[in-house]
Design a protein that fits this description.
Chain lengths: ~300, ~450, ~280
């Protein structure tokens, strides 16, 4: 698990090369400055993570009718086994995987296209367009979810009439949720890509043009390769975000029965802990989720470094 | 919180911010309780509850006597956090004196071993409670809670439309199906009511009526029977209503549902007694259109389901159980309580003399036909035996999860019910409970 | 690139603008809906079109919103400002101090702390919520301001950013000069380094503000006393009551509008700062 044994940390680490050590002062004042954060990190990340690991090894065992109260039992990896075998957990993982498959390409490609358009020479009123698309990022996720939930409601929202399908039905609810997330994040990533594009050396673009390369070609073979690291960072954060998907389906649950109480792994953890009251299973599921997050980000990072070193 | 005007006046300078933060935090640490102080010498009792209007009841109690001072903390409703918070407080040995439990949640709270046995304290009150409520606080024959209210299900219907089109009020489920078909024939867009697939407590209420309790405590063993004959009969009936498209699927209370109720697209509602107030508030322009009747029955045998109801328990570790009991007896049986309640809701107390008080205080005027409290009283009398099991709350979400695919044809209600039975039994056994499948012996 | 060179056009100018218009409509129409719907009474939802105005019930809705539960909506707004504002200011300072310490001083365990910080970025909130709840329960601070405020101060990504900013904007020569002048480490940080890092610290602050304002899981788990809710959790709770009490719908919608407005305005005003900050956060 990456939290305990940082086998490979993201790109972030690549910049952690030693700064000018010669001027460093060998005293403990630095520690004083670092202590507030250190305390926070230990108290609100390290200790809870260790506590989650501890909790995940125990369960409460009852007997008879159960009214005489529970007994704590150490069950080794029993909670992990029951989570891994639980169909609801599989379904949750399947849902976030599908969500990621819909959300990540549509959101990132949308953001990239918009950024390239803004970066192209022909666009007027650049600031106005970018602001308009960026505004949803300012809307808290819960409120964004509520707005869309109302828009999706079959009789009061316009979307059912517009598309001819019920966006809250069994088959459509996943893309509907992906749409909420895309709406929220496309502007944010567009700005990130657009800013990165500013770093593309003008001379190279000019030279390409002089060679007769069109706008599409310039974008594809010059601009995109330059901002590839930025794109990969965006992918990592979006993957982690997708795995933790919670708020949007939680909000939609009040509007449709098609979102189950364990629709995503995060909801599974919430249900286990706060509905079923099964802390051991909840802790085991959350630890598994963290491991999956760490593995996936490591995979994406490895893939990205291989691609860019080629 | 009393700090806020001062904060607003102070403006939002950075320093003000930090100072304000510190002040608010201090207040938060103190517990955010009601501001009035206890009279000297009074025994303090803390209560956590999400009951609407509990603040008013507590204020009335604190004003009426000097021996016990009740401190209320409003917590999130039931599965939105209330149960989790109470369960964890019991585990951490810092539970309040009085806990809020619904009949359906009582056995699950009991699994923590955190409630006090009230059998002796409550023995004298047995005859004063609605039998269904009394049974609700006695899952294993011991009394674990003080009943507050009960919510029998009834059938609300658009009497004006039923009369206008010559459709008789259905008294049995067969008639109900015929009425549903007639409604659809009059207006192809209209349905007799909605069957909310995502509400486990709704389906539980419907099954309750059929007379096969999902759980029974037998000695030291739970008999679990979620796919019993009565429940399957209920499931099969509603499955056919859904398959024949005779019933709507909107979630009760949503905008879609209100719009349907108001526009004549939904001609009825199978709902709990608390819908009396809800209807009047959310569809105020419909005065004089709606009537109330007891639920249709299976072959004329009087029987009625229940959807919800509140009770209160006392923590096993309470330092002031007698004072807590004094308050709960007042809350449950004092005639002032339904009088206060009638000013903002339509209470249906579990305590029979208090129910008469609530009936007196009811303003009426919204419904046509039989008086509302007569119908509710009759419904409450018809409630058959039922015991909630120690996994009832979790089962509600399992039900709504398993029923989700029904409308799309992914499964049927009877099939889903058989699976729910299996997973409920497996779940209970995994916890170490002693379980027997099938009907009680 | 101000010269419009016909050869460099990707596609036609109108086509580009059509795409931009569609994107802008997609982004803005839901907010337009929020505005029009805030003007409607409960009954108007079923009788008016989604983007039509109702019978101008906005004022009545706002009054009902602030009257509900003794004006608790004010409290929620104030709480959000305290959590997000206080958390962002304090959190950014803590991040700046730690980032600077990692970049510019050498204390034992510096590298270990940085490695821990980076892994901290990856730990999902879901993992932390349950143990934090149980710990808070044992410390008897569930349902207090601090139970939510303190965990939200922790911002490992902010420390990473602050370290990058300290590296980039505080030259070692300046620190050396301060040392020669006899300034202690702490004084050097507050009087010399912090002002130099200011743009970066403001960025961390803005990120953290949005992060806390958006955070839902932690308050949902740690708070049950409505007096301590941030506005998004309060609105969520009201929205879950709609099924039983439909009169909450106009409150939720109007409340959403009032909760979003100040943020959108702040965004428009701080537009430039945002772009700079996002750029710095992403390119590295």
């Amino acid at each position: 698990m990456s939290v305990l044994a940082p086998e490979r940390t993201p790109v972030l680490e690549e910049r952690s090369a030693e700064p000018a050590v010669r001027t460093r002062r060998k005293d403990f004042a630095g520690l004083v400055l670092a202590i507030p954060f250190l305390v926070l990190l230990v108290g609100t990340v390290l200790v809870p993570v260790l506590y989650a690991l501890y909790l995940s090894l125990f369960t409460e065992r009852l007997s008879g009718l159960g009214f005489s109260g529970p007994e704590h039992v150490f069950v080794w990896l029993g909670n992990y086994v029951s989570v891994v075998a639980d169909k609801a957990f599989h379904a949750g993982l399947g849902n976030v995987a599908l969500f990621a498959l819909v959300h990540i390409p549509s959101m990132l490609i949308g953001a990239l296209v918009l950024a390239l358009l803004l970066d192209s020479a022909v666009v007027r009123l650049r600031r106005m367009w970018s602001l308009a698309v960026f505004v949803p990022y300012a809307v808290p996720v819960v409120i964004g979810g509520l707005i869309w939930a109302y828009l999706y409601s079959p009789t009061i929202g316009p979307i059912k009439n517009l598309l001819g399908i019920d966006p809250l039905s069994d088959t459509a609810v996943l893309p509907s949720i992906a749409n909420i997330a895309t709406w929220q994040w496309v502007g944010y990533n567009m700005i990130i890509f657009y800013t990165a594009l500013q770093a593309v050396p003008k001379e190279i673009v000019e030279a390409a043009r002089a060679d007769g390369a069109g706008g599409l070609r310039t974008a594809w073979s010059i601009k995109i390769p330059v901002i590839r690291p930025t794109i990969f960072v965006a992918v990592v954060f979006t993957v982690i975000g997708s795995l933790q998907l919670f708020t949007e389906p939680m909000v939609l649950r009040g509007f449709t029965g098609t979102v189950t109480s364990t629709w995503t792994p995060s909801m599974y953890v919430y249900e286990a802990a706060f509905v079923a009251g099964d802390n051991g299973r909840a802790a085991a599921a959350s630890v598994l989720l963290a491991v999956i997050c760490a593995v996936l980000s490591a995979v994406v990072m490895r893939f990205s470094t291989r691609r860019s070193s080629r | 919180m009393e700090l806020s005007p001062a904060l607003r006046a102070r403006g939002l300078s950075r320093r003000g911010f930090l100072r304000a933060t510190a002040a608010l935090g201090a207040a938060g640490l103190a517990g955010g309780c009601s501001a009035t102080a206890a009279p000297p010498g009074a025994t303090k009792v803390t209560i956590w509850s999400w009951l609407t209007g509990m603040d008013k009841y507590v204020a009335a109690f604190n004003g009426a006597q000097k021996d016990v001072f009740v401190e209320l903390r409003v917590i999130a409703a039931g599965l939105s956090g209330g149960y989790a918070q109470q369960t964890n407080a019991i585990r951490a040995h810092n539970a309040p004196d009085v806990l809020h439990v619904e009949y359906q949640g009582l056995p699950q709270i009991l699994l923590t071993g955190g409630l006090r046995d009230l059998t002796a304290d409550m023995a004298d009150l047995e005859s004063q409670y609605s039998p269904a409520a009394w049974r609700g606080v006695r899952p294993d024959g011991r009394t674990w809670g003080v009943p507050m209210d009960l919510a029998p299900m009834v059938f609300y219907y658009r009497k004006d439309l039923f009369d206008q089109h010559g459709i008789a009020l259905p008294r049995t489920w067969d008639e109900f199906r015929a009425a549903a078909a007639a409604v659809k024939q009059v207006d192809p867009q209209a349905r007799i009511c909605s069957f909310p697939l995502n509400d486990g407590s709704f389906f539980a209420g419907m099954s309750w009526q059929a007379g096969d309790p999902w759980w029974t405590a037998q000695g030291d063993t739970w008999a679990v029977d979620i796919a019993g004959e009565g429940t399957l009969r209920t499931g099969t009936f509603w499955q056919s209503m859904i398959s024949e498209n005779l019933v709507a699927g909107v979630v009760h209370g949503t905008q879609d549902w209100i719009a349907g109720m108001h526009d004549g697209k939904l001609w009825g509602l199978l709902g709990a007694s608390w819908s009396v107030g809800t209807l009047g508030r959310s569809i105020p322009k419909d005065t004089g259109r709606w009537a109330v009747a007891t639920m249709p029955t299976w072959n004329g045998k009087p029987s009625n389901g229940v959807q919800g109801g509140t009770a209160f328990g006392i923590s096993a570790e309470s330092k002031a159980p007698e004072a807590a009991m004094t308050f709960l007896r007042w809350l449950s049986t004092n005639p002032d309580v339904p009088k206060i309640g009638s000013t903002f809701t339509t209470p249906f107390p579990a305590h029979l003399p208090n129910r008469a008080v609530a009936r007196q205080a009811y303003k009426g005027g919204y419904f046509i036909g039989d008086p509302v409290y007569d119908v509710l009283d009759e419904a409450a009398k018809r409630v058959p035996d039922w015991t909630w099991g120690p996994n009832a709350l979790r089962l509600f979400s399992t039900i709504s999860d398993s029923f989700g695919p029904v409308r799309g044809g992914g499964t049927t209600l009877p099939d889903a019910l058989r699976k729910i039975q299996q997973s409920a039994v497996a779940d209970m056994r995994a916890k170490g409970l002693s379980v027997r499948e099938g009907k009680s012996a | 690139m101000s010269v419009v060179d016909s050869k460099s056009r990707w596609v036609s100018v109108p086509a580009v603008h059509v795409i931009l218009v569609v994107a802008a409509l997609y982004s803005l129409l839901p907010l337009v809906w929020l505005v029009t719907s805030s003007t409607k009474s409960l009954g108007d939802f079923s009788t008016t079109g989604a983007f039509e105005f109702g019978d101008w019930n906005l004022w009545a809705n706002v009054k009902a919103l602030f009257a509900q539960e003794n004006g608790i909506f004010w409290q929620w707004l104030l709480n959000s400002v305290l959590y997000a504002g206080g958390g962002a200011v304090l959190g950014a300072l803590i991040c700046a101090a730690c980032g600077y310490a990692i970049a510019k001083t050498s204390f034992p365990g510096r590298k270990l702390l940085f490695a821990l910080t980076l892994t901290g970025v990856l730990v999902p909130t879901t993992v932390l919520a349950l143990p934090m709840y149980l710990l808070a329960s044992e410390l008897r601070v569930v349902d207090t301001f601090w139970a939510v405020f303190i965990p939200l101060l922790t911002n490992p990504f902010g420390v990473y950013l602050a370290r990058v900013y300290a590296d980039a904007s505080v030259p070692d020569e300046v620190l050396e000069a301060a040392r020669v002048d006899g300034a202690g480490q702490l004084r050097t940080f507050f009087t010399v380094a912090l002002p130099m890092m200011r743009p970066g610290v403001v960025t961390v602050l803005l990120f953290q503000f949005i992060g806390i304002w958006n955070n839902f899981f932690l308050p949902l788990v740690l708070l049950t006393d409505p007096k301590l809710f941030p506005v998004s959790l309060g609105l969520f709770q009201w929205s879950t009551r709609q099924n039983q009490f439909p009169q909450y719908t106009p409150l939720v919608i109007t409340g959403s509008l009032l909760a979003v407005l100040p943020l959108v305005v702040a965004f428009l005003v701080l537009n430039r700062q945002w772009r700079k900050g996002l750029a710095a956060g992403s390119v590295k």
